[in-house]
Amino acid sequence: MTNAQTASADEAVGALPLVGHWIDGAPRAVAGGRTAPVFNPATGRATAEVALADGDDVAAALASAQRGFEVWSGHSIAKRQQVLFAFRELLSSRRQELAAIITAEHGKVLSDAAGEIARGLEVVDLACGFPTLTKGGYSENASTGVDVYTIRQPLGVTAIISPFNFPAMVPLWFFPIALAVGNSVILKPSEKDPSAALWMARLWQEAGLPDGAFTVLQGDKTAVDGLLQAAAVQSVSFVGSTPIAQYIYEEASRTGKRVQALGGAKNHMLVLPDADLDLVADQAINAGYGAAGERCMAVSVVLAVDTIADALSEKIQDRIARLRVGDGAGTDAGEPDMGPLISAAHREKVSGYVDIAEADGADVVVDGRGLSVDGLEDGFWFGPTLLDRVPTDSQAYTDEIFGPVLSIVRVRSYQEGVDLINSGRFGNGTAIFTNDGGAARRFQSEVQVGMIGINVPIPVPVAYHSFGGWKSSLFGSAKAYGAHGFDFFTREKAVTARWLDPATHGGIDLGFPQN
Ligand code: NAD
To answer: Which letter does DSSP use for residue 480 in this model?
Structure first.
C-alpha cells in the first residue's frame, strides 16, 4: 500500500483500505456493500478494495448531483471562472501526488503518469476561457425592429464513464468543460484504478466547487446501468472498449440522452521507403510500447513497404533489446521504460493473441511471454513483443490487443497500405512516415481515420482541437473537448425579439413570418 492510496481512502475492508464514493462533498459510507480488489500491478498484490455502487448509492449520487446543479449553475460566470482557475493551480502544483496514485494502481511509469496529467491540464486551461467560447451571437435588426441572439445553457446532470488506461486524462477530457459551462458531473471511473477520481474530487472541493457539483460513483455495470436509466442524467460521455461503447450509445440514445461513446482502436503507421528508418524505429518503439501498449492511440501495426521492412525490423529489435521493464514507481536504478499490464487476466488475453498470431503463421521475432522481474515475480509482466509477417486475416491483426505487441505487416505499395487501414473496423488514429509531402497530403485526404499523424506517431490533438475517431472508435457525432466539447455540454437557444411599437408591428397578418 502506498501513501498515495491511503490518502484517498476513508474506511477499511478487513486489512485493506476502502476506496469509496464521493457524494455531496464527502466520502459516502459504504460498509457492508459489494467491493472489488484494486491491485498494484507491479507487485500483483491487492492494495485496496473499491466500493461497487448499488441502487441506493446511485440514487444518492443523482439526488446530490441535481442539487449541485441548481447551486452551481446559479453561480455567475466570474465566480465559476475563479473556481476553475483555482482547480487549475491546485492540479498543476500537486500533479506529482496524482501521478503516484496513477502509477500505484495502473502500473505506468511515473513520467508517463505525469504526462497524462499534463495533457489533461490542457483541457482545464481551455475550459478556463469558457466565457469567450460560449458567449453566443447577437444580430441586431435581423428584420426591421427585430433582434436575434443565441444563448447557451448547461444541460443539467452529466455522466462520465471512463476506462482504466487514463484514470486522470480521460475524465479531464470532459469534466472541466462540463463544469465550466454550469453542469454538474457524476464520474464513474474504472474499478481497476479508482483513486485518481477521488483525489480530483477533493481538489475540486478545495478549489471552491459547491458540494454535489462533482460526484464520484465507484462501481461496475450496476452503476453504469443506473446512470443510463436515470431520467435526471442528461448526457453520457463514455470512453472504453468498442462493445461497451456501442452498448452505452444504444442505451443512452434509447433513454433520450445526449451521448458520445469513444471505443477501441487498432492504429497503423505506414512507413514509406524514403523515411529515415532510425527516427521511424524510435517512434515505433515509443508508440508501440509506451504505457505497455495500453493506450487507445498506441501504434499496434507497422505497415512497412517491402523494400525497407527487413532493415526496419532489425532497428526495432535493436531498440527492444535496450528497453527496461519494471516497477513504474522506479527503483534505485531509476525509472524503467515500461511497467506491467493492468491485471493478470489482461496478461492472459494479450498472451493469447501472441499464441494466435504464432498459430496463424506470424513470426514471433521478440517474445515477451513469460517475462518476470526480479523481486517482483507476482507482477503482471509482459515483455515488449515483435511479430512479423502477421497475416491480415488473423485475429491478432484484426482485434485490438491493448498490450506491448507490435505487429509488422509488409505491403508492396503506399496504396496497399492505405487500403488495409481503410478496410479495418476501427478508425481512431494513424500515421504516415515519409519525407514526401505529396504522399503525406494524399494520405491525410484518403485515409478513413479520425486523427492522423504526419511523422507523428500518437497524434492526440491539442485541447482546442477535438479528439475522436471514426467508425467503431466513436459512436455519436460529438468528439471530446475543443469546440465539440462546448457544443456537447451546452444547449443553444435562439431568441427572436421585438419590442412592439405601432410603426413596425404590422397589424394582423396570418402568413408565415418573413423578413
Ligand atoms: P471497458 O470497456 O472494459 O471499461 C470502460 C468503462 O465501462 C469502465 O468504467 C467499466 O467499469 C465500464 N464497463 C465495463 N463493462 C461494462 C458493461 N458490461 N456495462 C456497463 N459498463 C461497463 O474498457 P477498459 O478495459 O477500461 O479500457 C480499455 C479500452 O478503452 C480499450 O479498448 C481502449 O482502446 C479504449 N479507450 C479508448 C479511448 C478513445 O479515445 N477512443 C481512450 C482510452 C481507452
So the answer is: B
The per-residue DSSP string of 410-426 comes to: EESSHHHHHHHHHHSSE
Beta-bridged to residue 187, according to DSSP, are 160, 216
504 alpha carbon – ligand 1 mean position (Å): 58
Answer positive or negative: Cα dihedral of 353, 380, 323, 294. positive
Atom of ligand 1 nearest to the CA of 264: 34
Ligand 1 mean position to 479 CA, how many Å?
Answer: 16
The tens digit of pLDDT for each residue in 61-102 reads 999 999 999 999 999 999 999 999 999 999 999 999 999 999
CB atoms within 10 A of CB 136: 13
CB 336 less than 6 A from any atom of ligand 1: no
User: Is residue 265 in contact with ligand 1, taking CB distance under 6 Å?
Assistant: yes
pTM of the predicted model as reported, rounded to 2 decimal places: 0.96
- Rg (C-alpha) for the chain, rounded Å, is 25
- Take residue 414 and report the three cell numbers written for it: 503506399
How confident is the model over 177-196, as pLDDT tens digits? Answer: 999 999 999 999 999 999 99
Q: Which one-letter amino acid corresponds to residue 333?
A: A
Sorted by sequence, the CB contacts under 8 Å of residue 10 that are 6+ apart come out as 18, 20, 27
For 243-258, how does the pLDDT look when each residue is reduced to its tens digit (9 = 90+)?
999 999 999 999 999 9
Relative to the CA of 188, which ligand 1 atom is closest? Answer: 9
Q: What's the DSSP call for residue 130?
A: H
The one-letter amino acid code at 57 reads D
Distance 296 CA to ligand 1 centre (A): 10
380 φ/ψ sector (left φ>0, alpha ψ -120 to 50, else beta): beta
Cell (9 digits) for 341: 499490464
Tell me, what's the pLDDT at 9? 61
Residue 61 grid cell? 449520487
State phi, psi for 291 to the nearest 5 degrees.
55, 30
Q: What are phi and psi of 477, to 5 degrees?
A: -100, -10
Residue 193 CB less than 6 A away from ligand 1: no
Phi, psi of 187 (to 5 degrees): -100, 125
**What ranges in 108-258 are assigned the alpha helix state H?**
110-128, 130-133, 169-180, 195-207, 221-229, 242-254
- Pocket probe for ligand 1: among 106, 165, 225, 401, the residue whose CB has the most ligand atoms within 8 Å is 165
Dist. CA 260–CA 146, nearest whole Å: 36
ipTM of this complex prediction, to 2 decimal places: 0.99
CA distances from 479 to 125, 289, 468 (A): 18, 26, 5
* β pairing state of 21-23 and 138-143: unpaired
